[in-house]
Design goal:
By secondary structure, the protein is mostly beta strands. The chain contains 1 helix and 30 strands. The strands form 6 sheets. Strands 2, 4, 5, 7, 8 and 10 form a 6-stranded mixed β-sheet that branches. The protein is elongated, with a radius of gyration of 31 Å.
Length: 400
Amino acid sequence: MTTIRTAGAVLATAGLVAATLVTGGLSASAAAPSNDNFSGAFVKSGVSWGQSFTNTEATVQSGEKVFFDELHNTRFFNTVWVKWKAPATGAVTITTKLSALDDTALAVYTGSTITSAKRIAVNDDDGFANHYSTITSLAVKSGTTYYIQTGSVGISAPASTGTIFIGLSGRFNSPTGDNKGSAIRKSGPVWTSNATTVGSTIEPVFEPTANPAHSSNPRLDSVWWKWTAPATGTATINAKPTGTEGVSLYVALFEQDSANGFLAVPGAFSNDAVNGKTSIVGQTVYAGFTYFIQVGSTNSIQDKVAVDFHATYTGPVISSVAASSGKLQGGNRVTITGTRLSGVTSVEFGGVAGTGLIVTSSKKISVLVPASLTKHRVAVRVLGSTSSSAVNTASHYTYK
């Protein structure tokens, strides 16, 4: 799946008025703009943006490619530069519409110096009114830096100069964990996982978009994590932005088990940031349940995010059953080792309770195996007054 940030949305964004000039662009002494040269390119970031600046008094530096129509001898004059790193792989549209200077051209380069830069796209007139320029569906690669060159158009100097607006909008590939079915799988009581919401989407029909905390802020641009609780306990989940775009995050928790299916955990939602983190604190998690963590934005900004997860277990866990097999008539005593076993009140073999329970310590108990009618392998679970163990690879017994 992909997501689109349209050029129209970029041009309409508050604050991106074409008449706004870059601070320090044109001084009272009519010096060249600060982004006159390749090495001084104005830096932009994000999946969509717009920026105005002047090319008055701008120059053409040594080694700069300026001819884009050698047949008609048409070229750039008074060039200025913008630098942008693609936050994800996809395609972008770049336009000079809304420029006060109506005869502009655009070119895009890769490379780290003016002499090594490779031009990968160029446009003079985009076919609309006036002589604005647009480069459409330019393929970009995540992490690659692109240099955008713009300036006045002409055949010979002098060319008209003035205020130029550049707008960029993107269509980006879906990130890892975009959907619940491809959630990022994690395990263990403590972990941190990095992701990005750039290119993320909301799944049709299934995925909730309402915000229970603030009705005016929807749930947008989500990514997912998946974790299974090996024991009953509590979990704290911190979602935090790790980029620079100013994304406002929400975090929600869902649980899934064989009996009830996929359900939102009541009250396990937050979009109130404290010290940059949006947190669910001390949420009860149950042994054997699988939990899904949904993180996304409330302000339509896509950026890098991270989840810090910490679980504290309070319920019992089985680490071994010995002996792990026996005859159908049962009656043999087995020893179960694990953690937090001191509160165990019962042991079940395939749902049938054993007898003669002896609790030796918090790490060891023993019990007599119940009889069985058939030869098969069953799950072993220990139960306490408030919690029970999850089934794992070690918690099984085989009737022979």
